[in-house]
Write a structure and sequence with these properties.
alpha+beta, six-stranded antiparallel β-sheet, 16 helices
Length: about 775
Amino acid sequence: MALTIAPDQIERIVWNQHQDPFEILGPHRIQLDDGKAAWVVRAFIPTAEVAWVILPEARQEFEMASGHHPNFFECVVEDVDELINYQIRYREGEREYVIYDPYAFRSRKLTDYDVHLFAEGNHHRIYEKLGAHPTVIDGVAGVYFAVWAPNARNVSVIGDFNQWDGRKHQMRIGGGGIWELFIPELSSGTSYKYEIKNQAGHIYEKSDPYGFQQEVRPKTASIVTNLDSHEWQDSDWMEQRRHSDPMTQPVSVYEVHLGSWLHGASAEPAIRADGTPEPPVTVADLKPGARFLTYRELAGKLIPYVKELGFTHIELLPIAEHPFDGSWGYQVTGYYAATSRYGSPEDLMYFIDQCHQNGIGVIVDWVPGHFPKDGHGLAFFDGTHLYEHADPRKGEHKEWGTLVFNYGRNEVRNFLVANALFWFDKYHIDGIRVDAVASMLYLDYNREPGEWVANDYGGRENIEAADCLRQTNHVLFSYFPGALSIAEESTAWPMVSWPTYVGGLGFNLKWNMGWMHDMLDYFQMDPWFRQFHQNNVTFSIWYAFTENFMLALSHDEVVHGKSNMIGKMPGDDWQKFANLRCLYTYMFTHPGKKTLFMSMEFGQWSEWNVWGDLEWHLLQYDSHKQLKQFMQKLNAFYRSEPALFTQDFSQEGFEWIDCSDNRHSVVSFIRWDKDQAEFVLTVCNFTPQPHSHYRVGVPEKGYYKELFNSDARDFGGSNMGNLGGKWADEWAYHSRPYSLDLTLPPLGVLVFKLDEEKTKAAEVSGFSEPED
């Protein structure tokens, strides 16, 4: 039979140089010499010796010829109106295989509208189109692949299923530079990559930017995954969140790195949900015999621990796939893939589901500021600087050895915006904490003069990055009201946590880095010198209501020689723990939401080690056990008093009583609830010198109950206090009509609240100041 196609077309297929192999391969309608309509079927099977087309329903078989190239086959099929679901049988040595022809499935999953939205940066669920998706076409199950690589000469899907041979499953390019192909009979669990050739023919093997799972490092292939298999049980939580405002609720976050909170022993393998053993993922040579706990094991250990401590949220250091453990997760290669170190995507869903069922929200660290140069990742993705800037003055963070996203490219911005939505949509997370926002906002961030390029207006602001953040937050809150978007932003960029419609970046919280630095500097001083640095304590209130601030003592404060929190505190061991309780209580009564990194709750001495466990053995000692108990009581107290969280971001929620007593290093202030109906009074003594008959002005007469004392005996303190409370004297003080005569414990914080029931009872009995 004469060939029905030109030899040069065959050569382009054989050498993987055709941008639309569907023009050559698969079924094509032709007209025979006698005028009859027929089909010609062509296939390129690099390892085949002979091949046949099989029509299973008609029970017919047609031998294919290989006239031009020994592995390029074709045959004519007559007397068939519709040629669908045919198969190809081929022989390879002594073995035979029967497959469906991927080039027989011509329908496209991406519509013109999908391509249009993606090109303008507004396809909010592009992850449902790009990537690898198990699907059924014409009754045949398989996997649909799609990848954006507009500058590539050719793209193929490779994996174990085709011996990683890029000639076997060549993709076609469509609108918007998106390559696609449906491969029949593949399913979830299939490992794959994209083989990408640039215009010079250089080959790059890339993980899928939109892949939902990757192999455990050091392997780097993507894995086909169905993210809709988990049966969520958190509908009540999700509905409640949708109707809530986290700005007026208690937010106390426990920041965790899952890989170093606790490890398991390699000799005790984890068990999958189906009862089979999980292959252990070892940690490093620094901890021989250890393995990571799985998401399911962490659900059974971490969630009860956090619930016992009373935190409202768990914040996970980045759980998107990353190749290097020592990056803590901040050098991401798989933005849509939950790291496989701790199990499968469904295992992570189970963990988050269990958090919600136990009343705990989940925040995930998100890293849109930079990405690593690893060869399988986004760097130089299609043989060009696709995701990053080509100019290293804009596209590289030399200090970190990473690349910067090109936020001005619509498709790149779409990748990031959709990625933020993805974690809320598929994993039901409750918030994101956006890492290193300042590095995104400033073109000269950590760059010397001459190493950066100004914007179009001659300034150093990265306008495209700011627009990307605004779009992300605007879209996020449109889809997921009640969510949290937290910025780690360390500069004076204005309106970070203001809505986008007034020109803000649209976050609803911003880490208060100024408060953190001032307070750590203050508490590291010998208490005698604190009298000269009262402004460290008071300055934060000058700007506390310009943004929606979160007070964070994070992982960054306990690494790189900075010491852990207990080690920063001066004095002997008793004073160290007293100082820490004092700091934490001041933090939880100061305006703003709260974040505390793991190990700080029980006073770990060593810095955080990403390859080790926390020092859990310390909990056998009373001082550490009592600090943990203190943290539990502090969280419970914080969550029980609306005055401490309903007006965190309004001047009406805070009032100084006295902030000028630097001689004694004492401050006192009031926190009001949102209706101004109730208040709590906080008095802080930042020195180890106790004070008797210390007078503090109060706005109302009556009995003030001592609700919380950081110096309580149960916490390891000296148990100095006010016998449960004090009656106000009709003695004007601090510009208030009444005052309290207090005993202030050393390095202690006291919190009082007017006991209206006891006060009214006294008024009825005719005694305004009964004896204590």
